[in-house]
Amino acid sequence: AAAEKGGYATFMEKEIHDQPHAVRDTLLGRTDEEGRLTLDELRIPEEKLREIDRITIVACGTAAYAGMVAKYAIERWTRIPVEVSLAHEFRYCDPIVDERTLVVSISQSGETMDTLMAVKHARELGALTISICNTHGSTIPRESDAVLYTHAGPEIAVASTKAFLAQITASYILGLYLAQLRGGTYVDDIKAVLKELAEVPGKIETVLERMGRVKEIAGFMADTRAVLFLGRHVGYPVALEGALKLKELAYIHAEGFAAGELKHGPIALIEPGQPVFVVVPSPSSEHGLHGKVVSNIQEIRARGARTLVIAEDGDEAVVPFSDEVIRVPATAPLLAPLLTVVPLQVFALWLSTAKGLDVDQPRNLAKSVTVE
Ligand code: G6P
């Protein structure tokens, strides 16, 4: 069993360390020599994909958060409106879907019943369906028009880690491919994004090398009763995923918020000593988002919060208001989730361990939920 875990104590720790490979392997073989994306594996006529005027992503749990990241990227690159729908809500909300709608399902196992039923419903309504999936030959890809496999390798720990990064990577590829097909204004930037993406696996290695301090922080927090997570733009789904990991693994009440929403309610929760993770956008983000999140950190710090801040290398603006700064290498703002989520996974892993819990098999959860 120790060998299966690659020398790590748990599958989850191993899978967190597999993440550079998961991203690299998911990118592999999907570009030609000229750096153009080639997704012949989809076997959908290009004209059909060109006609798409709406995208709905259906998924559950961590996969749905990958879908939320995908929405920001795909809308930005293709200008096609993208909606993210929890798969178990989709069928029951009389969804607006027709032949020009692309329904993208995201599922690690390919067996999640809620997601499968959403895909079947979408097909009945005439939508084109693409499955982003990690498991060859599983049910959801078989029930879809096409599949784009993630190459994360088997994920054993119940709580998803490497599959999440691979799902985000695959949805970037899909978004860039659609942008390439449609030839919009964004087409010139595709190569630049692909180049940035190719550098991400090495940057994840760098993040992993720096995780000693995060392990130490988690080790001191076994008695913590609640943790809050703030993020903005693509950092928002990262905050939600950080909170989900903590609930699943450490059974701690955790909640993720969009940082802009803070003043509309959650700030009332801040009391002295309350730990708050903040996923800070890159200083190179548009619309001054970085400065806005730095102000949020300042506001909660003034009310006594203990601020655990995930920020890009060289971002000095956060330092005066942070109890801890966890550094990640710089990348394109839309790609940042592949780096910023890693410390949150590591934190949940070690906090669960500090509480003496079963990291790989948390109570009440199943790896794949095959009932509705
Ligand atoms: C279960 C797992 C989660 C996972 C979700 C979706 O609830 O415990 O970790 O995110 O199902 O699974 P899928 O296989 O469809 O990605």
UniProtKB/TrEMBL annotation:
It is an enzyme of class 2 (transferase). Keywords: Aminotransferase, Cytoplasm, Glutamine amidotransferase, Repeat, Transferase. The chain holds residues 248 to 619 of 619 of the full protein. It comes from the Bacteria. Its main location: cytoplasm. It is found in: Cytoplasm. Homodimer. One of its GO terms (biological process) is UDP-N-acetylglucosamine metabolic process. The gene is glmS. One of its GO terms (cellular component) is cytosol. The keyword Cytoplasm applies. Catalyzes the first step in hexosamine metabolism, converting fructose-6P into glucosamine-6P using glutamine as a nitrogen source. It comes from Intrasporangium chromatireducens Q5-1. GO terms for molecular function: carbohydrate derivative binding; glutamine-fructose-6-phosphate transaminase (isomerizing) activity. The keyword Magnesium does not apply. The active site is at K367. Its EC number is 2.6.1.16. Residues 45-184, 217-362 form the SIS domain. This is Glutamine--fructose-6-phosphate aminotransferase [isomerizing]. It catalyses: D-fructose 6-phosphate + L-glutamine = D-glucosamine 6-phosphate + L-glutamate.
